[in-house]
Amino acid sequence: MGVGGVRRIEVTERERPVFGGTEFGAVGPYERLHGTIFGELDPTHPLNVGIVNLDRAARNAHGNVEYQSDFRILKPLDLDRGNGCLVYDVPNRGNQPIMPRLNGAPDGGHPQHAGNGFLMRRGFTVVWSGWQGDVPPGADRLTARFPIIDHPRYHRHGTGGVHRREHRAARRQ
Asked: Is cis: bond before 17, omega within 30 of 0?
């Protein structure tokens, strides 16, 4: 199979038009696609051997490790009217930070809130995908599903299952 990658993309919802049908100048109205990316990785491929515990994850019939990730695409209804540029916004805890930062939208780009329309008036397509496996679903967040390593070796150390570490800086007095 090689290194691995995306095997299927499934669009589960299409909202059109979004932002109440607002026309963004010459670009026109926008739509938002929601869906799931289905992928798999070959744990024996040299580019994947550095992924911690990938070799201990459950494998499919092809010997690969499967994963899933939510995605969202915000794009002009008519792509020919857009500027041809894609902006990938890395989600933070499943939220879409570019919309409040560049568009002044109050809640990260919910379809009712275009903010000031900065990105849309300029014809950008914006893409998000979930990448953090410990983000709880809901509240319009993007999530990702990865295999949980459940190996007897980890049980004796009390480390089987999902783990998360949080660091907090001490406040200086």
From this structure: yes
Write the pLDDT tens digit of every residue in 99-112: 778 877 776 545 56
Taking the C-alpha atoms of residue 109 and residue 75, their distance in angstroms, rounded to an integer, is 12
- Residue pair 130/94 in contact (Cβ under 8 Å)? The answer is yes
**In angstroms, rounded to a whole number, what is the distance separating the alpha carbons of residues 143 and 58?**
20
d(CA 49, CA 23): 48
Contact between 32 and 87 under an 8 Å Cβ cutoff? The reply is no
User: pLDDT, tens digit, for every residue of 51-93?
Assistant: 888 888 889 999 999 999 999 999 999 999 999 999 998 877 8
> 65-76 and 125-129 as β-strands: parallel, antiparallel, unpaired?
antiparallel
Place of tokens 């150390």: 157
Q: Which two tokens stand for residue 50?
A: 């550095």
d(CA 6, CA 20): 33
